[in-house]
Amino acid sequence: MTPLARACVGELVGTFLLVLIGTGSVASAVLTGALTGLWQVAVVWGFGVSLAIYATAAISGAHLNPAVTLSFALFRGFPRARVLPYWMAQVAGAALAGAVVLVVFGPFIDRFEAAHHLVRGAAGSETAAMVFGEYFPNPAMFGTDATAQALVSPLAAAGVEALGTGVLVFMIFALVEARNSVSPGATTPLFIGFTVAVLISLFAPITQAGWNPARDFGPRIIAFLAGWGDIAIPGPRGAFWVYIVGPLVGGPIGAMLYDGLLRPALAPDTTPAGES
Prior knowledge:
This protein is mainly α. Helices cover 68% and strands 0% of the residues.
């Protein structure tokens, strides 16, 4: 197996773990009520991110997110020839996780749809499809009618996704910076996961807090194939693009801001050549 193939396997497995735990927490909350309150879901998501990074960082760098891969390619010298293979592996891992969630929670989805008189693929069925892809505003909190949709335009949702992803990438760059004297070292994945949990707590009511095109698009493909059709892709108002464009724009902006505002102020690296 080539080094690139091994790295792509790492990205596939890591993204699978991240999305399995994350979307599993959403499914558990929406379909069973086992998790109550936004913070409980956010914490599980955050730990999912941390565990996935711990499992795969030594293999692939644990980007696990196309926006992170793009940001490292633009600002940290990550080989641009690897960007597309990484993206493909990330989407595949996320789709596989979505398929597992569909199988495991399938009876509970059926029960939820029956209890709420939902017709899969019809208007309003995003309250079940939100287990997989994301919608704005959060259907579980605001419903899906015209009044709810008027709260958040597609452009505003894309802006929120860009903002959250920008903050996430900004923090990733700060946490992994070799010259950061207070870098948490081996506990860095925990702080990245905590950043995700905090951002979910703040912004999930608005967009469900994706921050990751693979996390949204992979499970969304599964929802499309499972019968949600246009509700999954292209989604209400044709706005599934929000969860792809927003993060891919916001991530590099966060990286650029870190490099422009904070990195120049760090003490220079005084490690002698040849030492690490």
